[in-house]
Amino acid sequence: MEWTEEEAKPSERKLVVFTLGDERYAVDVKHVESIERMLPITRVPEAPAHVRGVVNLRGVVVPVVDLRRKLGLSPGEAAEEARLLVVRDGELLVGLVVDGAEDVVDVPEAAIVPPPAVATTVRSAYVEGIVRRDEALIVLLDLSRVLTDEERASAARAREAAEEGGR
């Protein structure tokens, strides 16, 4: 039986690696629309604490989520390296505030392992796996679990309110 060279390659995923504090995280590149320098954020009344507000990204109003707050991490200092990781979650564009963006890496599926059962926490509900890369470990987030349906609806309402206010 013959196979093509493509079929012979181990399955790989492209991941965008970013930092939150001293930890490295990643999301699948297929969800990432862009990585932006921080933009002015407009607060939206009655938004959940981890929704920082909305930004105007090239004419599109995008809700912004503070990923540190969402994951229950301690607040960090605003740094010049902070970035807005703009991701698509279904039909909704969402900006995730991260401390810094590092790189896009190719990772073999075999290098992604499930999180250890003893490390199960509320935050681990958002974790797809742990990536072993060189000597470092990278936490791979599952974006479909990071935002709940209620939070998606709240972010959509925040975007709509900001768009209506701008008219």
Automatic annotation (TrEMBL):
Give Gene Ontology CC terms. Answer: cytosol
Query: Which Gene3D superfamilies did the record assign?
Result: CheA-289, Domain 4, SH3 Domains
Q: Which domain of life is it from?
A: Bacteria
Q: Name one Pfam family in it.
A: CheW
Q: Which GO terms describe its biological process?
A: chemotaxis; signal transduction
The CheW-like domain extends over 12-152
Q: Which PANTHER family match?
A: CHEMOTAXIS SENSOR HISTIDINE KINASE-RELATED, PROTEIN PILI
The identity of this protein, by name, is: CheW-like domain-containing protein
Q: Which organism is it from?
A: Hydrogenibacillus schlegelii
Q: Source organism lineage?
A: Bacteria, Bacillati, Bacillota, Bacilli, Bacillales
